[in-house]
Amino acid sequence: MTQHSQAPLYQQVKRTLVAAISRGEYEPDQPFITQREVCQRYGVSTTTAIRALNELVADGVLIRHRGKGTFVADRTAPPAPDTGGAAVACIIQGLAGPHVSQIVRGVESVCSERGFRMFLSESDGSAERQGRALRQAIDTGAAGVVLYPIEDEANTDLIEELRRRRIPLVLVDRYRTDVATDSVVADDFDLGYEITRQLIDRGHQRIATLWSETRATSVRDRLTGHLHALREHGLPVLPELTTLRTYWPVADAASRSALSRLLGGTQPPTALLCANGYVLARAATDLLHLGDDATEHVELASMDDAGPYDIAPLTVLAAALPSEEIGRRAAELVITRIGDENPYRDVRRVVLGVSVRQRDGVGARLQPAGAR
To answer: Are residues 295 and 199 in the same domain?
Structure first.
């Protein structure tokens, strides 16, 4: 392996292993070297070894047999066969905003690297549209499915059909509690906890949460983290501030009335912790309509950057999700499962870390720009 090569390290390991196989150093009926042996032999990390081996499996060079190990594929077959135009279905809800678009970019980039086509469908939060997209993936012979599921536990019958047909499925952004599938998610508990802790460090003791979806596991995990931070700092958990209620999307008058009631109490919140950029945009608009008194004493924070535009200028704190990495890891996982005798055995939940961005200096304050 050439140490000074410009190729990524996992690709260098992969090429070295393919060359060794071509020289006849490994036979199809003998177990291939293990992940640990790859690490020791080539001085690479576990992550690099796993990725190199997984890609060789996806390329058809290696084959895994449950309970037996990894073997060289039949030498009579080409070592790196064409995928034959095999496709991965990527089904997401909503194309707007950086979070979803970066997930799609991650899925597409891995599919392109591995020689798979990706076809994209949008559910727009609808069980019916999600069902049509899943049915299309099944009927058109998709090799695997990456699904950003709607918040309701819908289309269970189609997921079970994927299982029966041995078509691997990986969920992104959230998992489901009713079916066992692979998933790749952000650490939503830590997200809710950390952004709340930093708001408390800024002096906020009454933090109102504003939500969009209320039944997704990602939302519930964030709320759990938020509540944990409040209790850890000795702050009361007040239902009027923490109950899961939909603030967006609802009619403008309804959200404005709800925010007015919230801010008009005897002890109004000093921070609004918004579920995402869409909720944040609505809250900022409502605050401006409510006038100077509302905007003067409230700071805004967001639990992720999903939304119609860059939310950073409006927030004192905003969580940054590993969106593209979620897409990449999901695509890698689904491709690795393709051809598995049982792609739903030993399912995995991959949890990726998040970060919280803080504005320098004093918090942002909303100010009307004036009207003609």
So the answer is: yes
DSSP string, 21-70: HHTTSS-TTSBPPPHHHHHHHHT--HHHHHHHHHHHHHTTSEEEETTTEE
Taking each helix axis as running N to C, give the angle between helix 35-42 and helix 9-22, from 0 to 180 degrees, rounded to the nearest 10: 100
In this structure, the answer to whether residues 221 and 313 fall within a common structural domain is yes
Q: How far is CA 38 from CA 28, 62, 63, 66, 69, in A?
A: 18, 14, 16, 20, 14
pLDDT band at residue 333 using 50, 70 and 90 as cut-offs: very high
Closest CA to 306 of 152, 188, 182: 188
Phi and psi (nearest 5°) for 137? -60, -40
Span of 10-19, 155-164, 343-352 with lowest mean pLDDT: 10-19
User: Strand, coil or helix: what is 98?
Assistant: helix
Weakest mean pLDDT among 118-127, 280-289, 356-365: 356-365
Domain around 218:
188-321
Cα–Cα distance measured from residue 195 to residue 304, given in angstroms and rounded to the nearest whole number: 10
53 and 71 Cβ atoms separated by less than 8 Å: no
Instruction: Work out how many domains the chain is built from and give that number.
Output: 3
Does 110 or 96 have the greater pLDDT score? 110
Residues 316 and 334 in one domain: no
d(CA 29, CA 220): 48
Do 130 and 47 lie in one domain? The reply is no
| Co-location of 121 and 18 in the same domain | no
* Average pLDDT over the chain, rounded to an integer: 86
Count CB-CB contacts under 10 A for residue 53.
Answer: 24
Question: What is the CATH classification number for the domain harbouring 270?
Answer: 3.40.50.2300
97 and 34 in a single domain? The answer is no
- pTM score: 0.74
